[in-house]
Target: Laminin EGF-like domain-containing protein
Amino acid sequence: ATGQYCDRCLPGYGGHPDCVDDCTNPLVSCNGHGATVTGTWPSCVCPTCLKGFAGPKCDRCATGFENYPTCADRCAVSTTCSGNAESVTGTTGNCVCQCRKGYAPPDCASCLHGYSGNPCADNCQNVTVSCGPNGAAVTTAQVGCKCFCKKGWGGEKCDTCATGFAGANCSTCARGFTGDNCDTCAAGFTGHPACYEACSSVSVSCSGRASAVTTTALAGVCQCTCLTGFAGLRCESCADGYNGPQCTDACTNVNVSCGGRATSVFGTAGVCTCQCKPNYEGFLCDTCAPKYRTGYPQCLPDCTDVLTSCGPHATSVSGSNGNCTCTCKAGYTGALCI
Model:
């Protein structure tokens, strides 16, 4: 009772002078933990308890909560996160839900904007949700959503570059394409929308390092005739014996630097010195040595010197132009007296 003379009932009580619970005030009937109350005294019923509480009078903790009357959350996906979370972290009373896609924090009990239904699903009303950051508009399709992508983007979810576009932001034309909308084939390419190599330009097909380019049986696969020093399908690398950005002579291969007419080679940056075979001379072994004057590049013995033409076991030599006849010392025989 209340009042100056205790002659009336407090809110939630009725029937003065008895002043019993009249089942109208959840604070009274449900221990302050109910949202609604129904029934008549003495059978008041609390059909909807506040989160964390349970029982006909909201007089105990619900599953997943503890320590009545505070009933702190014990951090369980089923209770803390409405069963709609991938996981939950934190400690009792301070839980954090990692909601599943489409559900809104903090308790994953409702759908995020752009999702609806049960379970929460993409409703094709939010372009960012349905198409990602590269979508321009979205509509409902017969199955799922239909995205209209921003310039340069393509794919069902606008998550890949559209045909003709490339780059991290799909903002530049891909190789072989040109134009404001990257919708035509660039010079040296043909066959839109594929825009494969036409095999008509050494700059395009052969890295600018070929003397000629021709087509093959496969569309877009070209045959390059590489310049000296270059190799590879597109003349994109240095041939053996060459190195550096311009693929200059590396002075490491006698066949490259000395025409195969040396026993070894040394030097750097295209300035090579060759250790010539006996019948050649010069920095690159590109002339015949004395007594080998029968014509470069063969440089055969000229049959004027016994040691040169026949070796140490001959007494004389005759002939010309590499067709030498040796007269051997006693005990030796053969064309070269060996």
